[in-house]
Amino acid sequence: MVNKMYLDKAEVLIEALPYIRRFNRKVIIVKYGGSAMVDEELKRNVIKDVVLLKLVGFKPIIVHGGGKEISRWVGKVGMEPKFINGLRVTDEATMEVAEMVLNKVNKELVTMIESLGVKAIGISGKDGALLHVQKKLSDGQDIGFVGDIDAVEPGMLWKLLENDFLPVVCPVGFDDDFNTYNINADDAACAIAKAMNAEKLAFLTDIEGVYRDYSDADSLISELHISEARQLIADGNVGGGMIPKLQNCIDAIENGVSRVHILDGRIPHCLLLEIFTNKGIGTAILNESEEKFYHEGK
After folding, report:
1. What does the entry list as the binding residues for substrate (predicted)?
2. Cα separation of 195 and 214, whole Å?
3. Global pTM?
4. Residue 65 neighbours by CB distance under 10 Å
5. For the residues of 58-122, what is the DSSP string, one character each?
6. CA distance 255 to 190
7. Residues of each annotated binding site
8. Which is it for strands 283-286 and 223-225: parallel, antiparallel or unpaired?
9. How far is CA 189 from the centre of its chain?
């Protein structure tokens, strides 16, 4: 008799089949950040997930952060990291360090992808004029070379996808005067997803997803429409750090992205579990016209 373990593996593959069929050849943006970028084992698991998505016919693009690594290197060179309203103050010297660190992280990810047998190319938002920015202010305060994206030119990303590459993007761009700016990676991922009408946008974070009541671990929401997301914000049921992320999700969906996923990157293979299983493990936010795959209580 066949071992149950092997039958279970077959069941997992069968469960994944409708999702593979539905999202085959569709663009998926993966915003990669948080603890999953620091822990080497988690990092490799995330990259394996993205490589698998590529090999089964999806068109993934990674947009990565690097805030923790930037802070570490700023400290290494004897500078003190400064933040205003949670945003890094980025003077010229800090921007120089940030760009070097982000490019280092970028090429490490490219190397890892290539080692798994998939062609990858690492770029920044400066390449091909991908990300054009204006100076970002924080409640009217100048925080240096931190940019708000005002235009995306995705032509190069389409070319890379057409030529079977997996693009890896670090969030740096420039303004009209070609000054270099650091960009929030969530904002960069959202802007690229909108510009490419991505089918999915997945945020890998250090939280499990969206809760109806953050103090209740059993209140994790598997799926919600954008009207429900707006209501959660209006009711004050989500923490301050989740509000801009949810607003990014709503913005992306209103601009053509079908589904946005908020996942805990600390869980091994969270991307595969969310995309290829009926219930998933994080929170999926979807347009009003999209049908929920998983109905809570059933």
Report:
1. 66-67, 88, 182
2. 32
3. 0.89
4. 23
5. -EEEEEE--HHHHHHHHHHTTPPP-EETTEE-B-HHHHHHHHHHHHHHHHHHHHHHHHTT--EEE
6. 10
7. 66-67, 88, 182
8. parallel
9. 6
Q: How far apart are CA 160 and CA 3, in angstroms?
A: 43
Per-residue pLDDT of the chain (298 residues; tens, 9 = 90+): 556 676 777 777 788 888 888 888 999 999 998 877 888 888 899 999 999 999 999 999 999 988 788 888 888 888 887 788 777 789 899 999 999 999 999 999 999 999 999 999 999 999 999 999 999 988 888 899 999 999 999 999 999 999 999 999 999 999 999 999 999 999 999 999 999 999 999 999 888 888 887 777 778 888 888 888 888 888 877 766 778 888 888 888 988 888 899 998 888 888 888 888 766 788 889 887 666 655 443 3
The label of the residue with tokens 């805990």 reads 264
- The two three-digit tokens of residue 287, written as one number: 């347009």
Structure tokens at 8: 């279970």
Enumerate the known binding-site residues for substrate: 66-67, 88, 182
For the chain, where are the E strands, in sequence order? 27-32, 59-64, 83-84, 87-88, 120-124, 131-138, 141-152, 166-170, 172-174, 180-182, 200-205, 223-225, 259-264, 283-286
Q: Is 267 exposed, middle or buried (0-12, 13-18, 19+ CB in 10 A)?
A: middle
